[in-house]
Design brief:
The complex is a heterodimer of chains A (about 190) and B (about 675).
Chain A lengths: L2 H22 L9 H14 L1 E2 L12 E6 L3 H10 L9 E6 L5 H4 L3 E4 L4 H13 L3 E4 L2 H5 L4 E6 L2 E7 H6 L3 E2 L1 H4 L4 E3 L3
Parallel strand pairs in A: 2-3, 2-4, 4-5, 5-6, 7-9
Antiparallel strand pairs in A: 1-8, 6-7
Chain B lengths: L1 H5 L2 H50 L1 H5 L3 H8 L8 E8 L4 E5 L17 E5 L2 E10 L2 E11 L1 H32 L1 H20 L13 H68 L3 E6 L4 E4 L1 H7 L3 H4 L4 H4 L2 H17 L3 E8 L5 E12 L5 E10 L1 H56 L5 H11 L4 H6 L2 H51 L3 E5 H18 L3 E6 L4 E5 H22 L5 E8 L3 E8 L6 H4 L17 H11 L3 E6 L6 E8 L12
Parallel strand pairs in B: 12-14
Antiparallel strand pairs in B: 1-2, 1-5, 3-4, 4-5, 6-7, 6-10, 8-9, 9-10, 11-13, 14-15, 15-17, 16-17
Helix pairs in contact in B: 2-5, 6-7, 12-15, 12-16, 16-17, 17-19
The chains are: A alpha/beta (about 190), B alpha+beta (about 675).
Chain lengths: ~190, ~675
């Protein structure tokens, strides 16, 4: 076999593996839409977060995740959590445009898409009291005191953690989660 | 092995010791090394497995958040274990997520390595796979491959140690064995030397030196003992050889004698067999044998010919298979009876052959007993007596015909006798009548007419004529003579007429009796014995008188009995007539027949005794046989039918004679039952 043919075959094989891997792995950043990754991350956050006892009605009471406003992340999240559990609890996904609504008050985790920061600002204090973990995707959200903020590094989705805000809200984030954070903000 | 066999005992013992030591050492080393290797593997396995568990746990979140760099950082911790060569984390879908070491190309790993939780030794490597789970959900797998190089190094070191120890051990073993082998090999070598000397010189007087009390010592002792025995046996053999020739001679003679005896016995046996075979096969009888189950075990040739089958079609068959059902049932019944009672069965049977032909056989069956005296079956024979039976029937028929003929002949003879007698009497009647006629015809009374004519001529001078005339003077005297003669004639005629009347009366009697005889034959009646005797005499009286036989009546008893009178009379007539003939033939002057009647409690006997020619002893036996006669014109059934008739009425006819010229006595014996005399149908 000629060297050029060998080279061609090798390149072809690599391309095949790359294409196949890309289609089979929804989590691969190269082909996923950003909100799909965000939905998967939000679900995984639930696994690495420990809420205070008062927010957990019983051993099997479901966790409630609320997506503020009208975001495709809500639909993706519904697909991701379908049939899954976090720490032995079922997960309920809701969408809401009203941060003061009862549904939002019951939430354990609230995703604040870009553009919804105004609504977050209104309820931030109340949510912090109720030990609600807030997840956002904008610098403004982070500045308003959101706990986890998605960031983009090239085509990869990463996240930063505001540990002071988390402590304020009395939720504990796992070390496993913290070690993956691109940045952990802590003043005190 | 051949090489080993050729070694000397000494070398063999040393070799055995060395091989044993080496084998033990090698086996122990092998066990030790195997154990070491296993321990090494177990240790490595647990070390790698725990590392996989730990790395998996610490990289779970990195997998969850798709942070490969973090995972690779975690895997850097594996460098603490130099035996771990490579590792890889696969994500939930089996794609390579992170590798160790970092510079390792991802293409070195593929999803085929994910085999669930497992530990495998493959191609000198240990491969461990563990799933990575978060919150019970498998999010990926970790694969770790560790090298076994250090194990191989250890193996080489062990092998070196074993080799050194083995050499040292064999050296020591050799030193010990070459010293100790003498304990065994020395006495054996001595023994071998002695044995070879015995073998080459045939010298049984040598003895091996005794050696201890172990097996070899016993072997030496046994060998010495054997030599002693051989020595003494040699001596005995020499003595026996001298004796042998004599014994061979004796034995030869003995064998020859035995052979002769055996040959004789064999000949006798064969003769006996021929004799038995001839008895069984040649006699015209049908012989068979059956076992206890009723199956044929033997049948002679004639039997097979009669049933028209081959031996193989008969032997082993039951009676039911050979005969029609009815006959078979009967035969089986008889067979069982013979076996149960152990008694002989003998009978004449009527059997029907296959074609429906009836025949008569005479069968004899006897039980067969086995050695224990138990009944093991039956054997038997039968004869076909159909012909004999037919002949007997024919004979009986002929006999009956002859009996009838005899009776008719007897009656004819009686009639002849009667006619003869009547003829005789008629002769007398004729003589008497002729006599009377002659007397009448020639009567002197006719002379009275002459006298009357003389008187008529001289009627005028009658007185003168009677007184004067000379002729007239003779008339008174003539008249007196004539009167006397006429009276005489009259007397004679009257006498003759009286005879005539008597004779006519006699004829009347004879005829009347013949009529009575003919009419009442076969009737049973009660009669006086003497009357029957007298009747018989009367019928024969003519001939008896004619032949001048003196008849003597000795009626000692005069019983009355109930019997067939005419049979008795017929027998008596025959006996009297035979007696008369016997007297006639003797030619003597004093012919005499005695008729004697006697009686006891059971029998009346009528004896007819003559003093005639008598009967020779040879004839006494056959005298009652049918057709036997001594007379020129006899037909030979008088006595035969007489004897039969006597038997018919329950009696017997017997004869006694002293021999020729001494007369004969016939006795008719009749049953006498005074108290049942009135029951005429007793016979």
């Amino acid at each position: 076999m000629k060297p050029s043919a060998v080279h061609f075959l090798r390149v072809a094989a690599c391309w095949c593996v790359w294409v196949a891997a890309g289609h089979c792995l929804p989590a691969a950043p190269a082909v996923s839409k950003e909100h799909q990754v965000q939905a998967a991350f939000i679900y995984n956050f639930a696994k690495y977060i420990q809420w205070p006892e008062r927010r957990l009605a019983g051993a099997t009471a479901p966790l409630v995740i609320v997506v503020l406003g009208d975001s495709p992340v809500a639909d993706e999240l519904t697909k991701v959590v379908f049939g899954r559990q976090a720490n032995g609890r079922g997960i309920i996904v809701r969408s809401s445009t009203d941060p003061a609504a009862r549904t939002v008050a019951e939430a354990h985790l609230v995703f604040v898409p870009a553009g919804q920061e105004g609504r977050f600002a209104d309820a931030a204090e109340a949510w912090s009291r109720e030990a609600v973990v807030t997840v956002g995707e904008s610098d403004r959200f982070a500045a308003l005191g959101g706990i986890i903020t998605f960031q983009r590094e090239g085509d990869k989705v990463r996240f930063a953690v505001n540990l002071d805000a988390a402590e304020q809200a009395e939720v504990r984030l796992s070390a496993q989660l913290l070690k993956l954070a691109s940045a952990v903000h802590r003043k005190s | 092995m051949r090489f080993v066999r050729q070694l000397r005992l000494r070398s063999k013992l040393i070799l055995i010791s060395l091989l044993t030591s080496a084998a033990a050492l090698l086996l122990a080393s092998a066990g030790f090394i195997a154990n070491e290797l296993q321990t090494f593997k177990d240790e490595l396995n647990s070390r790698v497995a725990s590392a996989a568990q730990m790395i998996g746990y610490n990289s779970a979140s990195a997998l969850s958040f798709n942070d490969a760099a973090s995972a690779e950082e975690t895997m850097e911790g594996l460098s603490a274990e130099p035996r771990i060569r490579t590792a890889c984390i696969f994500d939930r879908d089996g794609a390579v997520f992170a590798v160790y070491p970092k510079d390792r190309p991802a293409t070195d790993f593929h999803r085929g390595l994910i085999t669930g939780p497992s530990e495998r030794f493959v191609d000198g490597h240990l491969e461990v796979v563990r799933p990575i789970a978060v919150d019970g959900e498998v999010v990926g797998h970790i694969f770790i491959r560790a090298g076994l190089d250090s194990m191989n190094e250890r193996l080489v070191r062990y092998a070196q140690i074993v080799l050194v120890v083995l050499v040292a051990a064999l050296l020591v073993a050799y030193l010990i064995a070459s010293r100790l082998q003498r304990l065994i090999s020395a006495p054996v070598s001595d023994l071998a030397a002695i044995a070879s000397r015995v073998a080459t010189h045939r010298d049984y007087s040598v003895r091996a030196p005794p050696a201890g009390d172990d097996e070899i010592g016993r072997l030496v002792a046994g060998f010495n003992e054997m030599l002693s025995q051989i020595q003494s046996r040699d001596e005995a053999l020499a003595a026996a050889r001298d004796n042998l020739e004599k014994r061979v001679e004796e034995r030869t003679a003995e064998l020859a004698r035995e052979n002769v005896e055996r040959r004789r016995a064999e000949e006798a046996r064969q003769a006996s067999e021929r004799f038995l075979h001839s008895l069984v096969e040649n006699l015209p009888v049908f012989i068979f044998r059956k076992d206890a189950g009723g199956r044929m075990t033997f049948a002679n040739t004639r039997f097979l010919e009669r049933v028209g089958r081959k031996a193989e079609d008969v032997i082993g068959r039951t009676t039911a298979e050979l005969l029609p059902a009815e006959d078979a049932a009967k035969q089986e019944r008889n067979d069982r009876q013979v076996m149960e009672t152990g008694r002989t069965y003998e009978a004449t049977e009527e059997i029907t052959s296959g074609e429906g032909k009836k025949s008569f056989i005479h069968v004899i069956k006897v039980p067969v007993f086995d050695q224990n005296g138990r009944c093991a079956g039956i054997q038997g024979m039968f004869l076909d007596i159909s012909e004999r039976k037919a002949a007997e029937d024919k004979l009986a028929e002929t006999h009956q015909k002859l009996l009838d003929a005899s009776r008719q002949a007897g009656m004819a003879e009686v009639a002849t006798g009667v006619l003869h007698n009547v003829g005789n009497v008629l002769n007398s009647v004729n003589v008497s009548a002729t006599l009377v006629a002659d007397h009448i015809r020639h009567t002197k009374a006719l002379n009275l007419g002459k006298l009357a004519a003389l008187f008529a001529q001289n009627k005028d001078n009658l007185a003168e004529y009677l007184t004067r005339d000379p002729r007239g003077q003779m008339i008174p005297g003539y008249l007196a003579t004539l009167a006397e003669m006429v009276a005489d004639e009259n007397k004679t005629v009257v006498l003759e007429l009286e005879n005539l009347r008597k004779n006519v009366e006699h004829i009347k009697d004879i005829v009347a009796m013949q009529q009575a005889y003919a009419r009442t034959s076969g009737m049973i009646e009660t009669v006086a014995v003497v009357d029957m005797v007298e009747d018989a005499i009367r019928i024969n009286s003519g001939s008896l008188a004619r032949h001048d036989v003196d008849l003597v009546r000795e009626y000692q008893q005069r019983p009355v009995l109930t019997t067939d009178k005419h049979k008795v009379i017929q027998i008596l007539i025959n006996l009297i007539r035979n007696a008369k003939y016997a007297c006639d033939e003797s030619g003597r002057v004093d012919k005499r027949i005695i008729l004697r009647t006697t009686r006891d409690d059971r029998f009346v006997r009528i004896a007819v005794i003559d003093n005639g020619v008598g009967i020779p002893p040879a004839n006494l036996m056959r005298i009652f046989n049918h057709g036997f006669t001594t007379r020129a014109h006899g037909h030979g059934f008088g006595l035969h039918s007489g004897a039969l008739a006597a038997k018919e009425i329950g009696g017997a006819l017997t004869v006694h004679s002293e021999g020729a010229g001494h007369g004969a006595t016939f006795v008719l014996e009749l049953p006498y039952k005074p108290e049942t005399a009135s029951h005429a149908t007793a016979f």
